[in-house]
């Protein structure tokens, strides 16, 4: 794998760098660095405006085919964009769930009507999305979802509860995994529905986390409705579509994550130089190891994205790698901060960015599929080992 820029890629990098320098001014200059794990509440309105400016200039959905509003950028060009985005300290995006999860899913599994209806709103950041997968009794064990949907004329009627739904409080739509055939069990009889959030049958309740913020939510569906045509894939084949979405989340989506990771590691390194922690050989070694691990993660993602077809079970390797890396990065931040990292900035619970990082990343190895689930997937579907005994 050649990670150096060729002439075309070098020119693309200059274009990205010049555009960011020209437009990260005024109100957007003040938005630099806003967002990130445990900080999604920061500057939401200005970040949304920034995302829409990116869309106006063709910087959203870079890897999508041109017929769907993208640039057909190569994997390397997408990586270049996100690297320069990180170097510019641009604000964390707000439309990523639609751009990186639902959009590629609709391109792979959606009907032409669904693509015409929903993809332009994602490209232009005019409609925001959230993901309705996890439930109180079905988190990493996604096949155990109990949210139901039944057909009523030209609509589906949805009842149930989702939890840990990121950004549901600002989303216009939710892609929901629901059971449409009650006679089937586990992954059979599930369907993938696109459900509008702004309706009487949908209630969103924020979940206050250890960080004091509430980007996660509970979502209750009480006879919520969506059009009959808003099923992605065949009715009853939602498991295949849902796994496709998870593959995209752990593939292209990880490029965006690395924007944040690289910025965080640079901040930790700067803090170590400022407070003298860099002189501790053990901490200096851990910082160096974190840099190496991040480069290895980058190469793994590039190799996976470079393979033919959408990411498969191998994407569980990526989830396992980035979750453990990021949790370790939060621990490293606290160790570099030293004793001062134990003190709140202000009463009653004013946390600095490193304290938020540490607390938020405790969940990284749980949400989106726990480490245990990912290891089982790797063992059974990648390595071909025998399945664990089922109760």
Notable characteristics:
391 residues; alpha+beta; Butyryl-Coa Dehydrogenase, subunit A, domain 1; Butyryl-CoA Dehydrogenase, subunit A, domain 2; Butyryl-CoA Dehydrogenase, subunit A, domain 3; four-stranded mixed β-sheet; four-stranded antiparallel β-sheet; 8 strands; 13% strand
Describe this structure in words.
The chain is α+β, with helices and mostly antiparallel strands and 391 residues long. It has helices at residues 7-23, 44-56, 75-87, 96-109, 112-123, 238-249, 252-275, 281-305, 315-337, 353-360, 371-382, and strands at 129-132, 148-152, 155-162, 173-179, 190-196, 202-206, 217-227, 231-232. It folds into three domains: 7-94, Butyryl-Coa Dehydrogenase, subunit A, domain 1 (Orthogonal Bundle); 129-237, Butyryl-CoA Dehydrogenase, subunit A, domain 2 (Beta Barrel), CATH 2.40.110.10; 250-382, Butyryl-CoA Dehydrogenase, subunit A, domain 3, CATH 1.20.140. The chain contains eleven helices and eight strands. The strands form two sheets. A four-stranded mixed beta sheet has the order 1-4-5-8. Strands 2-3-7-6 form a four-stranded antiparallel beta sheet, with no helix packed on it. The mean pLDDT is 89.
Q: Using the coordinates above, name the CATH class of the largest domain.
A: Mainly Alpha
Return the string of H and E elements: HHHHHEEEEEEEEHHHHHH
The assigned CATH architecture of the largest domain is: Up-down Bundle
Q: Which blocks of ≥5 consecutive residues have pLDDT under 50?
A: none
Q: What value does the Rg take, in angstroms?
A: 21 Å
């Amino acid at each position: 794998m050649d990670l150096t820029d060729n002439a075309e890629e070098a020119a693309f990098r200059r274009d990205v760098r010049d555009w960011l320098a020209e437009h990260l001014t005024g109100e957007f200059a003040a938005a630099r660095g806003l967002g990130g794990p445990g900080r999604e509440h920061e500057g939401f309105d200005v970040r949304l405006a920034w995302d829409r400016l990116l869309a106006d200039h063709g910087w959203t959905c870079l890897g999508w085919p041109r017929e769907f509003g993208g640039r057909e950028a190569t994997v390397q060009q997408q990586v270049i964009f996100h690297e320069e985005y990180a170097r510019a300290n641009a604000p964390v995006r707000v439309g990523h769930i639609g751009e990186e999860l639902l959009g590629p899913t609709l391109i792979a599994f959606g009907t032409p009507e669904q693509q015409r209806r929903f993809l332009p709103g994602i490209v232009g950041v005019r409609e925001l999305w959230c993901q309705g997968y996890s439930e109180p009794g079905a988190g990493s064990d996604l096949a155990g979802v109990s949210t139901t949907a039944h057909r009523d004329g030209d609509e589906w009627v949805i009842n149930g509860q989702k939890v840990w739904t990121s950004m549901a409080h600002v989303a216009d739509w939710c892609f929901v995994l629901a059971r449409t055939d009650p006679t089937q069990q586990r992954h059979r009889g599930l369907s993938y529905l696109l459900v509008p959030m702004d309706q009487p049958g949908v209630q969103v309740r924020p979940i206050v986390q250890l960080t004091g913020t509430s980007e996660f939510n509970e979502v209750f569906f009480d006879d919520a409705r969506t059009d009959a045509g808003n099923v992605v894939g065949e009715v009853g084949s939602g498991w295949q579509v849902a796994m496709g979405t998870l593959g995209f989340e752990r593939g292209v989506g990880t490029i965006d994550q690395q924007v944040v990771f690289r910025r965080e590691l640079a901040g930790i390194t700067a803090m170590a130089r400022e407070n003298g922690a860099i002189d501790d050989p053990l901490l200096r070694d851990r910082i160096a190891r974190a840099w190496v691990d991040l480069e290895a993660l980058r190469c793994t993602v590039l190799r996976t994205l470079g393979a033919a077809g959408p990411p498969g079970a191998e994407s569980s390797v990526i989830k396992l790698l980035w979750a453990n890396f990021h949790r370790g990065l939060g621990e490293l931040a606290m160790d570099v901060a030293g004793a001062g990292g134990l003190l709140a900035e202000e009463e009653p619970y004013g946390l600095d960015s490193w304290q938020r990082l540490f607390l938020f990343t405790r969940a990284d190895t749980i949400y989106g599929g726990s480490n245990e689930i990912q290891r089982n997937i790797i063992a059974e579907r990648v390595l071909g080992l025998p399945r664990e005994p089922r109760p």
